[in-house]
Amino acid sequence: MDDLKRLAAEAQDMAPALVAWRRDFHMHPELGFEEVRTAGVAADHLRSLGLEVSAGVGKTGVVAVVEGDDLPPDAPTVLLRFDMDALPIDEENDVPYRSQTPGVMHACGHDGHTAIGMGVAQMLVRHRHSLPGRVKLVFQPAEEGLGGALAMIEDGVLENPAPSASFGMHLWSRLPLNQVIVQPGPLWATAGSFRLAIRGRGGHGAAPHETVDATVVASHIVVAWQSVVARSVDPAQTAVISVGTLYSGDVNNVISGRAELTGTIRTFDPEVEALLKQRMAEIADGVCRAFGATYELTFPFTFPATINSEEGAQLMRRVAQQLVPAEQIAAITPMMVSEDMSEFLNRAPGCYILVGASDPQQGWHSPHHNPTFDFDERVLPTGVALMAGAAIAYLQQQAARSED
Ligand SMILES: [Zn+2]
Ligand SMILES: [Zn+2]
Q1: Of 125, 175, 279, 380, which residue is most buried, by most CB within 10 angstroms?
Q2: Distance 371 CA to ligand 2 centre (A)
Q3: CB 19 within 8 A of CB 95
Q4: Residue 91 and residue 133: Cα distance in Å, rounded?
Q5: Active-site amino acid positions
Q6: What is the pLDDT of residues 347-389, one digit of tens each?
């Protein structure tokens, strides 16, 4: 993998183009499943490189495959994923490239990811003659809670050709510039949403004995749920149950017959997640029965935990070692945020990394999803080299194995 070192210099030459692409996306942010312009720019770029493009995959996703020459029928395929969506936030940065769409902003850095994906495409096309397999470039819509990865998977993105591994990255404004976080195991949590609707019997505030008070039932459930993490989950595990909303009643002198709560559950382990859901349902059921209420508990969506395979992390680490100084490669304590890259990793194991992009001296250290979020654009070439390097290294590794 000696030639990987070359990728760093090649990516550096692309820096002006990467910055221009990123700023263009930043000025024209689009919400999940509405990334029509963004997807169009990416697709045009891919076509200009001579690639065949599939557009409209998972609504607004874009896919292209870079293929080596004269591949054997069993040549490996690797997937690289870049997300494209922005957030419903009003940008507060006073920069020449600030969002031109009021109320919408690239506050998570996905503008950078899309630009990096375009750079990776260019670099892989340049090296296609030495690629011992195929690289599927996936520009994904709607990462921010809307399930864009699953939409693309349901639309067949993992078929023809089917990737045996996947790699992805997130630039991270809270880590030093070009620090690379690469580690096996869970990095980010599983995130699930829940909704509990309680049905009692409303009535006059002066005649509580004739009612089933949904407010009282909801209150008991909220308190009892607090014991799930404290008393049902193994203390060596990590879990969160947060009730985000609780609505009940309309008027001060009427006992409410209906209550509704919503919230989020987080953990790293699918077994703990199942336990949380089971205990929440048992408590809701028991409390409602005790008070004579009925209920409906649903978990509208769950993103699985983002878990890197041992082998994927090892490969990614070797790639990073060729591209950045050793002291910039690090690991972190897993975080309770979530990412639907997990949908790809669960089906094609690999590695998801974070690449630091903060520059406190320039004021670039605002957290993600914040109206003053911005990042150091010097991260862009590093992202290109790492992602292109991961694809090349993976294909070389697989090709060497099949020769053995
Ligand atoms: Zn985000
Ligand atoms: Zn993000």
Answers
A1: 380
A2: 14
A3: no
A4: 42
A5: 85, 143
A6: 999 999 999 999 877 766 789 999 999 999 999 999 999 999 9
- The CA–CA distances, whole Å, from 276 to 93, 112, 227, 301 equal 40, 36, 11, 14
DSSP string, 88-117: S-------TT--SSTT-B--SSHHHHHHHH
Q: How far apart are CA 294 and CA 286, in angstroms?
A: 10
- Which residue matches tokens 């992805």? 168
Of the listed ligands, the closest to the CA of 145 is 1
* Angle (deg, nearest 10), helices 36-48 and 15-27: 150
Q: How far is the CA of 369 from the centre of ligand 1 (A)?
A: 6
Q: Note the pTM of the prediction, 2 decimals.
A: 0.89
CB of 283 within 8 A of CB of 221?
yes
Q: Give the C-alpha separation, 362 to 377, whole Å.
A: 11
341 CA to middle of ligand 1, Å? Answer: 12
54 C-alpha vs ligand 1 centroid, how far in Å? 25
Place of tokens 């490996």: 76
C-alpha to C-alpha distance for 115 and 381, rounded to whole angstroms: 10
Query: Phi first, then psi: what are they for 174, rounded to 5°?
Result: -100, 5
Percent of residues, the chain, with pLDDT higher than 90:
92
For residue 368, give the ligand nearest its CA.
1
- Residues 247-296: pLDDT tens digits? 999 999 999 999 999 999 999 998 999 999 999 999 999 999 999 999 99
Residue 63: pLDDT band with limits 50, 70, 90: very high
Q: Which domains does the chain have, with CATH numbers?
A: 4-187+305-403 (3.40.630.10), 190-302 (3.30.70.360)
- Considering every ligand atom shown, identify the ligand nearest to the alpha carbon of residue 367 and give its number: 1
263 CA to centre of ligand 2 in angstroms? 20
* ∠ Cα 358 362 368 (to 5°): 40
Taking the CA atoms of residue 261, residue 264, residue 265 and residue 268 in that order, the dihedral angle to the nearest 10 degrees is 170
Residue at 260: amino acid letter: E
- Surrounding ion ligand 1 within 5 Å at CB are 108
